[in-house]
Design brief:
The protein is mainly alpha-helical. It is built from ten helices and no strands.
């Protein structure tokens, strides 16, 4: 095994991986994505929840539980075997590929939902059973993408960024998979498209930012992402409440109400957690910025005072020097005159 060189302080510096290793990691990522693609993009005529039953709760139970268990195990593996490798560089191509793929995938879902509304006559609100416009298939793909999004966390752990694996992050990925399993199981048609449409659009922006950041390209909308997510949660809650009251009473069933309750709970809980995150992140940044500006003002005032004092000292010294020089010149002149007078008297 190759060992990384030690720095002057005796610490081991991460070793840059070879180009072959980086592309091998990207190849493994492609293989994982291919398996996901195979089980997700089934024929549209076999859309789960519409033409065939949705898989049982055992699948999300196994996948979400495995997700939670795998995180500490992956952390141990990284610390034990990968501490001497520059994981950020090793995973760069894999992460760029993943983020670009997510932009394309979520962009495709946005297009399918808009196409269903604009061209295929899917009702905007107040519908329960419409499944012939393609929204149900897009909702199924959206649900499956929640498992692919587990790689958001895996990349963080592999890069040693455990500070980013917060309760909010883990809860979000764990709970959202269950919420969308409930959607495709209880309510795959009609108004169920709305939350997936907004979430897909937010993900287009989010993964585009991640991809651009990896490529060292400035992204102007980073600061607005959390605000957009908070707006998304609010809009879904409002839409869900209006949709329930717009359904014909004779068509409503208990499973539809249950699905709406689950969705509203998910949105409200995420809104609360994201609000706390936003306040902590941007509140501290604002306070820090104000403190820096205040420190800058104090420093500026101190420098100005020092310069002013120095100028006064120089001016005073110049005046004193002028006085001394004038006195010295006067004394020399007087001495010279006296000397000349003495010489004249002496007849010299």
């Amino acid at each position: 095994m190759c060992r990384a060189p030690k720095s002057s302080e005796g610490l081991v510096s991460p070793q840059d991986p070879s180009l072959l290793a980086r592309y091998t990691a990207a190849g493994i990522s492609c293989a994982v994505f291919a398996v996901w693609w195979k089980y997700t993009f089934i024929p549209e005529s076999e859309t789960p929840g519409v033409n065939v039953p949705v898989h049982s709760y055992h699948y999300p139970l196994f996948l979400t539980t495995s997700y939670l268990i795998s995180l500490p195990l992956l952390k141990i593996i990284v610390q034990k075997f990968c501490s001497n490798v520059n994981m950020k560089l090793l995973l760069k191509e894999s992460m760029v590929l993943y983020n670009v793929a997510q932009v394309a995938l979520n962009g495709w879902m946005v297009w399918r939902f808009i196409d269903a509304l604009w061209n295929r006559g899917h009702p905007f609100i107040g519908d329960i059973y419409t499944v012939s416009t393609g929204t149900s298939y897009a909702v199924w793909v959206h649900y499956c993408d929640k498992y692919l999004e587990f790689f958001d966390t895996y990349f963080m752990v592999l890069r040693g960024r455990m500070d980013q694996v917060s309760f909010l992050h883990t809860y979000h990925h764990f709970s959202i998979a269950w919420a969308w399993w409930a959607a495709v199981t209880l309510f795959p048609g009609g108004d169920s498209y709305f939350g997936a449409l907004l979430n897909s659009w937010i993900h287009v922006l989010m993964y585009a930012y991640y991809a651009l950041a990896l490529l060292k390209v400035h992204c102007p909308w980073k600061r607005y992402l959390t605000q957009a997510q908070l707006l998304q949660f609010t809009c879904v809650v409002i839409y869900s409440c209006f949709s329930v009251f717009s359904w014909p009473e004779e068509q409503r069933e208990g499973k539809h109400i249950l699905c709406i309750v689950i969705q509203v709970w998910e949105m409200v809980s995420l809104f609360m957690l994201f609000s706390i995150f936003y306040k902590k992140s941007y509140g501290k940044r604002k306070a820090k910025k104000e403190k820096v500006e205040d420190d800058d003002d104090q420093c500026k005032a101190a420098v100005e005072a020092a310069v002013s004092s120095a100028a006064q000292a120089v001016e005073t010294a110049a005046k004193e020097t002028t006085k001394v020089a004038s006195s010295a010149a006067k004394a020399i002149t007087e001495t010279g005159v006296q000397t000349m007078q003495s010489c004249v008297r002496a007849g010299v």
